[in-house]
Amino acid sequence: MVCDFYELTMSNGYFKKGLHKKKAYFDMFYRSTPDNGGFAIAAGLEQFIDYIEALRFTKYDIEFLRSKKIFDEGFLEYLANFKFSGDVYGVPEGTPIFPNEPILTIRAPIIEAQLIETFTLLALNHQSLIATKANRIVRAANGRAVFEFGSRRAQGADGAILGARAAYIGGCSGTACAVSEQIYGVPAGGTMAHSWVQMFDSEYEAFKTYCEIYPEDTTLLVDTYDTLRSGVPNAIKVFKEVLIPKGITNFNIRLDSGDIAYLSKKARKMLDDAGLKNCKIIASNSLDEHIIQSLLVQGAKVDAFGVGERLITSKSSPVFGGVYKLVAIEDEAGNITPKIKLSDNVTKITNPHFKKAYRLFDKNTNEAVADYICVHDETIDESKSLKLFDPNVVWKGKVLRNYTAKELLVPIFKDGVKVYNSPTVHEIKRYCKEQVSLLWDEVKRFENPHIYYVNLSEKLWDVKQELLKQQKGNSENNNNGINLGDK
Amino acid sequence: MVCDFYELTMSNGYFKKGLHKKKAYFDMFYRSTPDNGGFAIAAGLEQFIDYIEALRFTKYDIEFLRSKKIFDEGFLEYLANFKFSGDVYGVPEGTPIFPNEPILTIRAPIIEAQLIETFTLLALNHQSLIATKANRIVRAANGRAVFEFGSRRAQGADGAILGARAAYIGGCSGTACAVSEQIYGVPAGGTMAHSWVQMFDSEYEAFKTYCEIYPEDTTLLVDTYDTLRSGVPNAIKVFKEVLIPKGITNFNIRLDSGDIAYLSKKARKMLDDAGLKNCKIIASNSLDEHIIQSLLVQGAKVDAFGVGERLITSKSSPVFGGVYKLVAIEDEAGNITPKIKLSDNVTKITNPHFKKAYRLFDKNTNEAVADYICVHDETIDESKSLKLFDPNVVWKGKVLRNYTAKELLVPIFKDGVKVYNSPTVHEIKRYCKEQVSLLWDEVKRFENPHIYYVNLSEKLWDVKQELLKQQKGNSENNNNGINLGDK
Q: What SUPFAM superfamilies does UniProt report for this protein, alphabetically (chains A, B) (predicted)?
């Protein structure tokens, strides 16, 4: 029942009109990358799969819908027996993705395809958003560990729990969110809040007690009262009194307020002077990719970062604008009719038809050079050169030779049955790192990234132009003599 | 188990040190208002209450924690029998709230108070964020209905479902999210997507079919192909052919792309010329309070708004920065010791002690003039004048006469038992509207709103100054001879 109400009204309409057995093709794709980035990271497929497998309407749901008094009894009965029976093709989680290429393609009877719209979008939009942001932050940290700390500022519990999962896929080393480990295996950890320090008569006593209980890889939060005059000196004292005598050398301090660049350098000096060169410094407090880059440029002595609200909400760009659009219908004989949506905003015009998508790699460098979207029955022959052209500026093009082509979407469901084995979250994280490494550096930079080429095949381009022409003709013959004014 | 891992490590530590029966006081408050607004709207209390009542650790949770190999068996046994036994005071949902005043105060044994930190924050932060944003958007719409349409762009399913609840509290008229009606009673509705129009051989046929199935209060989406050349003319034709003959006059069109100001005026003219003056125009597509204000300034002919991603994520300001801080501890004899957190950022210094908060209203105008935070054992005598002063600039002050004082926080739990009856979501929405109407217009404007006065009592101010002095002294005596450098 996590759906938009219009999916129910439309489905009831399809049912009443006997259209509900007609098969429709929907694509999910997105139009622009958060933070004006060069690419996004796909995530959320596993939750989509779980949803499709569990999707049923309970007696309670049917009662609720009946109470609205607009739904046909036959339709309610249909819902009571509902089970997804369609095919799904999807991009594996952790894959870099680009605007206007299909991330997910659904082929299913129209009602089934329509009813799953909202959850499908929200699952993939949310986690792709956070995985994309996490990947930016992790790249900014340049090899240093980044921990996800943002549960308390997440937009709801799912935002926290699945956000931690997506952050891990994007490259974070772990999370503070305990339940994300329990459910998804995302490594969770944490040590103390300011309240721990306040609960004791002194900061020294609070630190000492903590190190006695948790001697291994402990982290002391040093900014409750005064970082340099109290926190760091007390931490040094306790490390020397409690841990060093036991031969323990893996311990850390955390800076959570103030001028991190300044404080980290001062704290580093104090730790080094005390002979604690091994003590690591963790920084947190309103960090994101830009502040982390700036801290590193300033020579801040930070070994790891904890990132909260700016990651878990993707604060600077908190929406992943994935959409779900009808691209074709199929009659009972299996004939596919491509469909287009025009819109008054040119950028909102869709790519029609049941499609395939390839990523093309240069055989010499192994780098991804372009993606290539074609009609479902086209194939790429790697032994032949491939003509690429800009779908918006068609005279701009090039001929690609010596490449490999890899299909982006893989089968997920066939006739409602899952045919895909979800990798573990650790495998997805590794896959993501590897795939991002195959992108050009110019696509990865934060400022004005290079726009990666997403090309259409000639056949697909022709289908699109034909539909545009057709539809334009329809509209012009269709205004019923009403004066449209002068625009 | 929706908690940050450090809450578990700290709690284990308190347990081992025998501190777990010590009572602590925590305040939840926020530091700055999203979108630089003049006030926020409290929401999420009902979900906090449900959480506290349901809070248990299952066998599965205990097994998971045991597997981490850092928790004491006695502590795990304590968790297995965990039940919240504390007192809670909270601001009712729908109340306008201001920075640095308590929204929620917890008095409970330290472990109980610590373990609920993350969920408490995320529940109240999330819904307060969305209720606050919705209230801004509804105020911008100036009496026109605003519908929440954003589920697909929400940050997770809770973001969608509870976001719709919060948006309704903040003033929206309804939501597209079906399950929010089912669970929370938020009115849900919706009509058609572009896919409905695409499924038929023509837009005309799609519209006609829809109006036949749903003749009452129907809304046709007119931008699938060409708003003015195809969508509006087809809608007019269908309204006249199908609905007018049946005597039905409550129907609408929806514009979802293009230049809404221009298109709405043109569409209005076309509808009026066709004799359909009663047909309402609904607009959607990346709206927020600023775009709605601008559309109305431009004279757009829009009767209702559908708002998606910019509301459900509070896109322009997607974090509500509520925090949860220890403010006092209580010994077994019932003596309360106030606690403070200093921090290197002055704005992060907390207001110590177990406190009460009052809203003061001018008896003549009934307007809210200031909030007043005092120590728990202070009371306000309305028959006497009240001295107010700026807690940061103490020579700025005034004497208030002829006022009424209303306590902001009400008892929610007493000894772990709920003592509060949650109002319905409809009652909360009405309460919110009424309470916002008592605020000065200057506090409600979007640009540079007046900063509403949140004052401390003299007694509370003295407690805070005393703790600041004390703590500063501690830090200075505490640096163990380590060279701090020149800052």
A: Nicotinate/Quinolinate PRTase C-terminal domain-like (SSF51690), Nicotinate/Quinolinate PRTase N-terminal domain-like (SSF54675)
C-alpha closest to that of B352 among A221, A220, A198: A198
Chain B residue nearest residue A149, CA to CA: B4
A117 with A143, same domain? no
**How far apart are the C-alpha atoms of B260 and A344, rounded to whole Å?**
10
Burial class (CB in 10 A: 0-12, 13-18, 19+), A63: exposed
CA B111 – CA B82 distance, rounded (Å): 10
Task: Give dist(CA B319, CA B331) in Å, integer.
Answer: 36
The yes-or-no verdict on residue B76 having pLDDT over 70 is yes
Instruction: Name which of A213, A232, A479 is nearest B233 (Cβ-Cβ).
Output: A479
- Tell me the pLDDT of chain B averaged across its residues: 94
Who among B2, B257, B310 is closest to A160 (CB)?
A: B2
The alpha-carbon radius of gyration of chain A (Å, integer) is 27
What's A168's domain CATH number?
Answer: 3.20.20.70
Same domain, A166 and A300: yes
pLDDT for B487: 36
CB contacts under 8 A, A 75-114 vs B, are 110, 114
Secondary structure (3-state) at B218: strand
Q: What is the predicted pLDDT for the residue at B482?
A: 47
Q: How confident is the model at residue B345 (pLDDT cuts 50, 70, 90)?
A: low
| CB spacing of A178 vs B227 below 8 angstroms | no
Range of lowest pLDDT (A423-427, B389-393, B413-417): B389-393
Which residue in chain B is spatially nearest to A181 when comparing CA positions?
Answer: B64
Q: Tell me: the pLDDT tens digits for A122-140?
A: 999 999 999 999 999 999 9
Pairing of strands B355-362, B403-407: antiparallel
Region A160-179: what's the mean pLDDT? 97
Could you list the residue range(s) of the whole structural domain that residue B111 is in? Answer: 5-130+325-357+405-475
DSSP state of A202: S
What is the least distance, in Å, from the CA of B408 to any CA of chain A?
Answer: 23
| B339–chain A nearest CA distance, Å | 7
pLDDT confidence bin for A343, thresholds 50/70/90: low
Are B6 and A153 within 8 A, CB to CB?
Answer: no
Question: A341-350, B132-141, B163-172, B265-274: lowest mean pLDDT where?
Answer: A341-350
Q: Burial level of A184, CB count in 10 A (0-12/13-18/19+)?
A: buried
Residue B204 is inside which H or E element, if any?
helix B203-213
Instruction: Tell me how long chain A is.
Output: 487
Average pLDDT for residues A87-108, to the nearest whole number? 98
**What is the rounded average pLDDT of the residues A74-94?**
97
Task: Count how many domains chain B has.
Answer: 2
A3: contact with B, CB 8 A cutoff: yes
One domain, residues B295 and B147: yes
Contact A213 B16 (CB under 8 A): yes
- Residue B456 · residue B356 · CB < 8 Å: no
Residues B125 and B217 in one domain: no
One DSSP character per residue, B428-457 reads HHHHHHHHHHTS-HHHH-SSS----EEEEP
Please check whether residues B153 and B62 belong to one and the same domain.
Answer: no
Interface of B with A in 353-392 (CB under 8 A): none
Give residue-wise pLDDT tens across range A399-408.
Answer: 999 999 999 9
